[in-house]
Design brief:
The chain has about 375 residues and is of the alpha/beta class. It has helices spanning about 75, 95-105, 140-145, 160-165, 170-180, 195-200, 230-240, 255-260, 275-280, 285-295, 300, 310-315, and strands at about 5-10, 10-15, 20-25, 25-30, 30-35, 45, 50-55, 55-60, 85-90, 110-115, 150-160, 185-190, 210, 240-245, 270, 330-345, 350-365, 365-370. The longest helix has 14 residues, at about 170-180.
């Protein structure tokens, strides 16, 4: 272990893959975990007593194409709020991905991307990016993904009527074709689609991701009687993944409560952060974790939703784990007790007696305190 190593001391470590949990020190040398053991100190020390040390948080759905559309800076809105890896959710398409790489290449945050099926991506949300047929370009999407395998994790399509028109099926079939040709998963945005999920989900493959799982918008996961649709459970049984990205419109407390009560927890949590939501300094993955925590879901069950599970969804076995020899991303969290008001996207409020806050992260061997 070199003198330049950074060591987190005194915290409670939890690695969801191995199940290791306890009072351990974590040393990171360069970009790798060099030691994970009690009672040792080396290099630069960061005292994290009273805190929980977990793998670096992975945000499966964000918008960090800064300067384009609603994109926000991934370092200010990610690293400083506990996220070490952010996956942009379709801000860029084939015609704008070069600019995306230029912008995001300047971040300290690890930044990956779901490539928008639309060639223009989400440059202006006033116009649905899949409304015009010429923007739906499977060939260009596949070629761009093939040329950027190091950063593109799959393809994205928003299936709402305000994005692709009255029917979601043409866009869904096209994005699936791109996924098949490139051998990559797809992410589909649900809520306000022209068809119910019972018509859309059967087309998805194992490993494909449904985002906005807990949306209260039309054609979500609940049937008219408030129960989880059979097609939703069937899709999960086939290996389809369900992500609960909040954003401006897509976490409803009544839907979250129904999902918890009916034992249908999301596979992952995400922010869908943009300029609008990111203007709130408390907005980030810890806030979305707090939402679920307030419904009685144990923190041990929530942590994999922001670490191991999203890492698996993007096929990155080197992320989402806190183990010796692995990538040294780590997030330090604290659970604070008090009285906290939580608000969903429709303005409903509820009280929580605990909240999760970010203390700081380790990224590329550097300690970055939360802002």
């Amino acid at each position: 272990m070199s003198d330049r190593a950074l060591t987190l001391t005194g915290g409670e470590v939890y690695d969801p893959e191995s199940g290791v949990r306890g009072r351990l020190n974590v040393s990171v040398d360069g970009d790798r975990i060099s030691a994970l053991a009690p009672r040792f100190e080396s290099g630069r020390l960061v005292d994290v007593r009273g805190c929980l040390v977990v793998p670096g948080l992975v945000d499966l759905h964000s918008h960090v194409f800064e300067g384009i559309g609603e994109g926000i800076n991934a370092d200010a809105a990610g690293l400083q709020r506990g996220t070490t890896t952010t996956v942009d959710g379709g801000s860029a398409g084939a015609r704008t991905f070069g600019g995306f790489r230029t912008i995001t290449g300047q971040y300290r945050s690890r930044t990956l991307a779901w490539l928008n099926l639309s060639s223009i991506g989400q440059v202006d949300l006033r116009v649905g990016e899949l409304m015009a047929a010429q923007w739906l370009d499977v060939d260009a999407a596949v070629a761009t993904a093939e040329a950027n395998r190091d950063s593109i994790v799959g393809f994205k399509a928003r299936l709402s009527t305000y994005v692709c028109g009255g029917s979601a099926l043409p866009a869904l079939r096209a994005v699936l074709a791109a996924g098949e040709r490139a051998g990559l998963p797809i992410m589909v945005h649900i809520g306000d689609s022209g068809e119910p999920l019972s018509e859309l989900l059967p087309l998805l493959r194992p490993g494909d991701v449904v985002t906005h799982t807990l949306t209260g918008r039309k054609n979500g996961i609940l049937g008219p009687d408030g129960t989880i649709l059979p097609a939703v459970r069937e899709a999960r049984a086939r290996g389809v993944l369900f992500d609960a990205a909040r954003g401006r419109n897509h976490i409803s407390f009544p839907v979250m409560q129904a999902a918890v009560e009916q034992a249908f927890l999301p596979d992952s949590l995400a922010t869908d952060i943009t300029l609008t939501t990111g203007a709130d300094p408390t907005y980030g993955l810890p806030l979305v974790m707090t939402h679920l925590l307030s419904f009685g879901v144990p923190l041990d069950e929530i942590i994999p939703m922001v670490t191991l599970n999203p890492a698996r969804a993007i096929r990155r076995d080197d992320l989402g784990r806190l183990q010796r020899g692995n990538i040294g991303d780590a997030t330090v969290l604290r659970v604070e007790e008090g009285t906290y008001a939580l608000v969903d996207v429709d303005g409903r409020s509820r009280q929580a007696d605990r909240r999760v806050v970010a203390v700081g992260v380790v990224r590329a061997g550097q300690w970055i305190p939360a802002a």
